[in-house]
Specification:
421 residues; mainly beta; Immunoglobulin-like; 6 helices; 10% helix; extended
Length: 421
């Protein structure tokens, strides 16, 4: 009998790759949904991937999207609540290593922009690294700064996983999830910045969670995916622990600088008052011989040379819209508050378990300890020279994390074990 033919299909490798890695052609689709009441001239601008890196896109005016539903109000004078939707399907792109690194290391922006003056009304910053493990990303927010927007949702999804088996084995995604911080001491005596957790990974990438209101138990559920295949950091898992900083006591730095009042110039004031009280000049002259009043000759208008002042055009009053080019920043620079970020807690996580064979998941619960800092509590309020400031005694301050046994819970998940049997 002739030998049976093997019906298994052979993997066809890319001819132009040269690396033996299969091509991965993906197509993304983004969907927006906005619930509004009387919204006008608002555009959403967002960054997303193109064939090489990232590109800025816009959705057009929200009030020109597809209308999903309209809900009239009890008062007929009030505008109805309208739900708009927008959808865009991107061109197919080849998902390669460089695009995976963009999602892993870079946060992409989304802006709500006033189309009249191109001012940013609200901005968001998204970490899309989770799409390296799941082919979709969803976001919902109902506390917008724009009063006309009552609810906002959007999602991005791909038609297939971004990393197939070969690419996943090469890049080895490593997910870090900050789950919660519990038994945190709450102090209501001072006004602090919103709480967040921050850490620096082995390759120098700094990750910061979303901010939350200070509470005794805070649940962040913040995830980020690193690509271990692009780093040479295997030795760090055994020798260098990760330090997670809990910033729950960041205070605004007060710069109490005394303004010098200008000295009162009495001579200048008298001169101004004298000019105000000076009687108006008569419009006639008296002839010394006859004593008759002779009206002054009118000065011809042609003799006066009118000097036209150059008036600078205000871009805000001009009806022409500003052109916003792709890649250029549209957010106007605003003065930022300065914070004292030295008084925070630290949780140290040792990842040495991953150096053992076939270990892919580790859950760690670590205590939060105060970071030892010295805070200058007097020099900001005193008008002293440099030498006097140095002689001011410093006061040791630390948060009582240990008294309440504060803890941080973090999950780690690796795609492929570092060491296999």
């Amino acid at each position: 009998m002739p030998p049976k033919k093997d019906n298994k299909k052979e993997l066809v490798l890319s001819e132009d790759d040269g690396t033996g890695i299969l091509k991965n052609i993906v197509q993304f689709k983004i969907q927006f949904q906005v619930v509004t009441q009387n919204i006008q001239n608002i555009v959403i601008m967002y960054e997303w991937l193109n064939a090489n890196s990232t590109e800025r896109y816009d959705t057009g005016l929200i009030d020109q999207w597809n209308v999903v539903s309209t809900e009239p109000q009890q008062n007929p004078d009030d505008p109805p609540i309208v739900t708009y939707s927008y959808e865009k399907v991107f061109d197919q792109i080849r998902f390669i290593d460089s695009l995976a690194e963009v999602l892993s290391k870079k946060k992409l922006y989304m802006y709500f922009v006033n189309a009249d003056d191109m001012k940013v009304m609200q901005e968001f910053q998204f970490d899309y690294s989770l799409m390296l493990n799941t082919p979709s990303f969803e976001f919902a927010f109902s506390k917008m700064r724009i009063m006309e927007i009552l609810d906002f949702k959007f999602n991005i999804q791909s038609d297939k996983p971004l990393l197939h088996e070969q690419l996943r084995a090469k890049l080895n995604p490593f997910q870090v999830e900050i789950v919660s911080c519990e038994n945190i001491p709450v102090q209501a005596q001072k006004s602090y910045e919103l709480c967040y957790v921050q850490y620096e990974f082995y390759d120098g990438t700094v990750i910061k969670t979303d901010m939350q209101v200070q509470m005794q138990n805070m649940y962040f559920n913040s995830k980020h995916v690193f690509l271990l295949g692009t780093m040479d950091i295997g030795k760090h898992f055994e020798t260098k622990p990760l330090k997670f900083e809990l910033h729950d006591k960041d205070e605004v730095v007060r710069n109490d600088v005394k303004e010098e009042l200008q000295l009162f110039d009495i001579e200048k004031w008298l001169q101004i008052e004298e000019e105000k009280n000076r009687p108006p000049e008569p419009d006639f002259t008296v002839d010394p011989k006859t004593g008759k009043k002779i009206p002054k000759k009118e000065v011809k208008k042609d003799d006066k040379k009118e000097v036209k002042k150059e008036v600078k055009k205000d871009a805000k009053k001009d009806n022409k819209k500003k052109e916003v080019k792709l890649g250029e920043p549209i957010l106007e620079e605003q003065p930022k508050k300065q914070y004292n970020r030295n008084n925070h807690g630290v949780a140290i996580m040792n990842l040495g378990a991953f150096i053992h064979s076939n270990v892919r998941e580790v859950d760690l619960l670590a205590g939060i300890v105060p970071r030892r800092v010295f805070e200058d509590t007097e020099s900001n309020n005193l008008d002293l020279n440099t030498t006097a400031r140095k002689n001011i005694p410093k006061v040791f301050t630390a948060t009582n994390y240990l008294d309440l046994q504060a803890t941080m819970f973090v999950k780690f998940e690796m795609s492929n074990a570092l060491i296999r049997k």
